[in-house]
Structures are given as C-alpha cells and as structure tokens.
Amino acid sequence: AQSVTQPDIHITVSEGASLELRCNYSYGATPYLFWYVQSPGQGLQLLLKYFSGDTLVQGIKGFEAEFKRSQSSFNLRKPSVHWSDAAEYFCAVGVDNAGNMLTFGGGTRLMVKP
Amino acid sequence: KAGVTQTPRYLIKTRGQQVTLSCSPISGHRSVSWYQQTPGQGLQFLFEYFSETQRNKGNFPGRFSGRQFSNSRSEMNVSTLELGDSALYLCASSRPDRVGRNEQFFGPGTRLTVL
C-alpha cells in the first residue's frame, strides 16, 4: 500500500522569504502526486499535480514542485511567501488500481511572520 | 460552474444517533469520494462512488455507508454515532476518465460534532 510522509508539522517563515515543504511517498511504482492547500474552515484546493513527464511542475499562486524519483520526494516550493499563504498544506498520492482514492500526508501548517 | 456543495455545513448529534450528509458534485462529474478529517488521524479516505456503484472503500467500520443517485449526488450515513466520529467530512468530485490521475474538487465539508 502507498503512504505519504510530511516530516514538518509546523513551519514558520517570514513574509518574502522562500519556502520549501517536504513530502516523501512510499509506493512500488510512480504514483500520481498532488499538493493541496486548506485554509481554516475551508475545503481543499489543488495547487498542482504530477502525473508524468517534466519533473518540475508549476501550479497556482506561484507554487512549484519537483518530483525526484530517486528520493521518493515531491517537495513544494515558493520563492517568496505572502501572508495570505498561511494555511495547511497536504501532499497526496493516487495510484492506478485504487479508483480516485487519495492517500494524504499528515499536513504541514504554514505560518507567515510579517 | 458551481463547485461541490455539501449540506449541512454544521451538525451536532448525540452518541447513538445516526446522521446523513449530502454532497452535490460539480455538473458532469460522476465520481464522488468521501474523506474524514480529524486532528488525530488526518485525512482518511472513506469510499468512492461512480455511476451509483461503490468503487473503492477505506478502512472504516460498517457503521459508515454511502450511496450515489442517478444524478451523481451522494449521501453518506453514519449509524450509532460515537464520540470519535466527530470530524470534518469532505466530499470530492472528479471526472470519470483517467482514473487515479483526476483532479478532485473538494467541497467545504460538513463539521459533525458528536456529544
């Protein structure tokens, strides 16, 4: 079975600083990879996804992520964080033989200092 | 295009009662998935329905059930509620093709509190 680990439960960065959120997955083949963001009291919004091809994917709100097969990682990055980026971020994987089921990591709560 | 809607948004029940939550997917989406989100267990997959059939099921007891109607709307039911069922229940819809690699669109969730 697949699993996802987000090692950092909380991260605090200053506004304007760069950001990297870590995500590691465990699966025998290449999974489909997603990053979602959740603001308080809200559902999940998709930031970006990786299915195949170019390992650097661009998403909404200036986010990007890089798939590294050798490290089983799919880290999320943003060059300059804005106060409105404060939220919880979830990495998720989907696989071919499980319908549309997503397996989520535990999430990383991002706080932004002014 | 309207997003995924969930009703009700908030619900308070007592132990032993049952509850039904509703989800209306985005128009044209035929796959509906349900997730439970709690502080302790995080986001966990409950089940997925596609064309009125349960396609996949997570590791939850039989007290959790669901169904999907011909218009793709879905309901989930929890019987004999326990305190541990207090959670945010999220519904997600997606297009029917390219299973596994579909973008799933999430609703705002139903916050269930069991007293």
Kindly describe this structure.
The complex is a heterodimer of chains A (114) and B (115). Chain A has 114 residues and is mainly beta. Chain A has no helices and 12 strands. In chain A, a hairpin with a 5-residue loop joins strand 7 and strand 8. Chain A is globular, with a radius of gyration of 14 Å. In chain A, 38% of the residues are buried. The mean pLDDT of chain A is 93. Chain B is mostly beta strands and 115 residues long. Chain B is built from no helices and 11 strands. Chain B has strands at 5-7, 10-13, 19-24, 31-38, 42-50, 53-57, 64-68, 74-78, 87-94, 105-106, 110-114. In chain B, a hairpin with a 2-residue loop joins strand 5 (42-50) and strand 6. The termini of chain B are far apart. In chain B, the strands form 2 sheets. In chain B, strands 2, 4, 5, 6, 9, 10 and 11 form a 7-stranded mixed β-sheet that branches. In chain B, strands 1-3-8-7 form a 4-stranded antiparallel β-sheet, with no helix packed on it. Chain A binds chain B through residues 32, 34, 36, 41-46, 49, 51, 90, 92, 94-107, and chain B through 4, 31, 33, 35, 42-45, 48, 50, 55-56, 58, 90, 92, 94, 99-109.
Question: Which characteristics define this entry?
Answer:
heterodimer, A: 114 residues, mainly beta, four-stranded antiparallel β-sheet, B: 115 residues, 52% strand, globular
Briefly characterize the structure.
Chain A is mostly beta strands. Chain A contains no helices and twelve strands. The termini of chain B are far apart.
What's the β-strand tally of chain A? 12
Q: Assign the structural class of chain A, choosing from mainly alpha, mainly beta, alpha/beta, alpha+beta, or little secondary structure.
A: mainly beta
Q: Please, how many helices of chain B?
A: 0
Order of helices and strands of chain B: EEEEEEEEEEE
Instruction: Calculate the terminal CA-CA distance of chain A, rounded to whole Å.
Output: 41 Å
Tell me the distance between the termini of chain B: 37 Å
What structural category characterises the helix and strand content of chain B?
mainly beta
Indicate the mean pLDDT of chain A.
Answer: 93
- Topology order of chain A in helix (H) and strand (E) letters: EEEEEEEEEEEE
Mean pLDDT of chain B: 93
What are the segments of chain A in which pLDDT stays under 50 over at least 5 consecutive residues? none
Strand content of chain A: over 45%
Q: Which two chains share the most extensive interface?
A: A-B, 27 and 27 residues
Outline type of chain A: globular
Share of helical residues of chain A: under 10%
The portion of residues assigned to helices of chain B is under 10%
Work out the strand percent of chain B.
over 45%
Low-confidence stretches of chain B: none
Shape of chain B: globular
Radius of gyration of chain B: 13 Å
Number of strands of chain B: 11
